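DEPOSITED CHAIN:
***
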Amino acid sequence: MEFNKMEALLEKYFEGETSIAEENELKNYFSSSDAAPHLEQYKPLFGYFAEAKKENFEKIIPLIPKKQKVAWLSIAASIAVLLGAGTYVYFNTNEIKENNELGTYENPKEALEATQKALAMLSNNVNVGVEGIQYIQVYEVTKDKVFVE
């Protein structure tokens, strides 16, 4: 009778359906010497759990303080940012002065001519886009004639 109960408990154990009390009962059964001969193959499995409970990790882990690393890293990052900003300013000061003079006209007639030229170019590009839309409209009308719903 006891063997049948243990076999049923083993089956439940391998299906993952046992309670903690039932698992403790299995561990106690296999740690005793009166285990059934045909169930002896499971003895090392449950014996391992008892052995594993006795193991302890005794190695000392040295802890490295992170504050020192963070301090040096922040100082190095600050120096890198300052050097980068200084280099940018040093090499680009002439270009910034030259760019401020672009797009201004002293003579109103020259400004009017440049504006008219820019607007004419814009008008030509818009007209090209409108022509493309007309082709799409022709396509839509033809498609509606061919594919009547």
